[in-house]
Every structure is written in C-alpha cells, then in structure tokens.
Amino acid sequence: CDEFESRKPKFLILDLTLITGIDTSTVDIFNEIRNLCTSNGCKLFVTGLTTSLRTILNLGGFKPETTERSKRRLRFFANLDAALGKAEDMLLEAECDDKEVSPHDHRVRLLSEGDFGFRTALRQIDEEHGDNFSIDL
Questions:
Q1: Residue 57 and residue 61: Cα distance in Å, rounded?
Q2: Residue among 4, 36, 24 at smallest CA distance from 12
Q3: CB 43, CB 73: distance < 8 Å
Q4: Of 53, 55, 60, 52, the residue nearest 34 (C-alpha)
Q5: Mind listing the pLDDT tens digit for each residue in 41-84?
Q6: Which residues sit opposite 109 in a β-bridge?
Q7: Nearest by Cα to 122 from 46, 131, 108, 114
Q8: What is the rounded distance in angstroms from the CA atom of residue 10 to the CA atom of residue 2?
C-alpha cells in the first residue's frame, strides 16, 4: 500500500494553450478531474487559459480557491513554464521538509531555511565559481 501511495502524482498540470473552445460537458469533466485530484491529495495546475475559456470554466464552478496559495488544490497559471516551476519548487520544499539536513551533508550544504528551487541552484553555482550573478536576479 505504501508503494502505491508513493507513486500517486502530487501534481497534475493541464496545458490548454491550444484549446480554442469548450462546452458544458467539458466543464463537467474538468470538475471531475479536480474532484479526483482533491480526493487523492494531488494539486491541479491549469495553464494557457484564454480569458473566454477562463470565464466559461468559472461559470461552471471550475475556479481556483481563494485560500492561502500553498494550500490551494486548483491554481491557474499563465503558461506551462510557470506551472512547472511552481510544482518543482513545491516538490523540493516538501523533500527538504521530510529530511533532516545534516550540516555535513555536501549535497544540501548551501540550502538555508525556506530557500528552495532555482534560486538556490544559482547561489550554489555563484559560490562554487566565486561570482555574485544571482543577487541581481
């Protein structure tokens, strides 16, 4: 059972960039997908929505929650890169929270509390090469 639990996806990202229109049955399917994700502890990220698609989805009850961002199960993003970046940051954060970090562990020696993802990687590169390029980013 633990093996099955560990294989469940933590995120489902739907990129609707190429979608030009939807009908009410499609909205119902999106609501079912959201409910499946919620019941299985999976966050649903939707990207590439045009204003008209977003309006249709909202009218059908498919809209992001207004709770604290990190606790939202459904989120909309402007593009796929933003959604992938957020999912990656959240996975890294969860991974770091689950592990006890030893100060002698070379792989994570530069991580500081609350600092995850791409920014940390840039800082590590700067330290290894004696540069400060990441400060301006």
A1: 6
A2: 36
A3: yes
A4: 60
A5: 999 999 999 999 999 999 999 998 888 877 889 999 999 999 99
A6: none
A7: 131
A8: 15
Structure-token pair, residue 118: 């791409």
Scanning the chain, the segments in alpha helix (DSSP H) are: 2-7, 24-39, 51-59, 80-98, 118-129
- pTM of the predicted structure, to 2 decimals: 0.67
- The DSSP letter of residue 89 is H
CA distance 35 to 92: 25
pLDDT digits 0-9 by tens, 83-134: 999 999 998 887 776 555 454 444 444 444 455 566 777 777 777 777 777 7
Place of tokens 């700067």: 126
Three-state SS across 96-125? HHHCCCCCCCHHHCCCCCCCCCHHHHHHHH
Please state whether 89 falls in left (phi above 0), alpha (psi between -120 and 50) or beta.
Answer: alpha
**Beta partners for residue 77, in sequence order:** 47
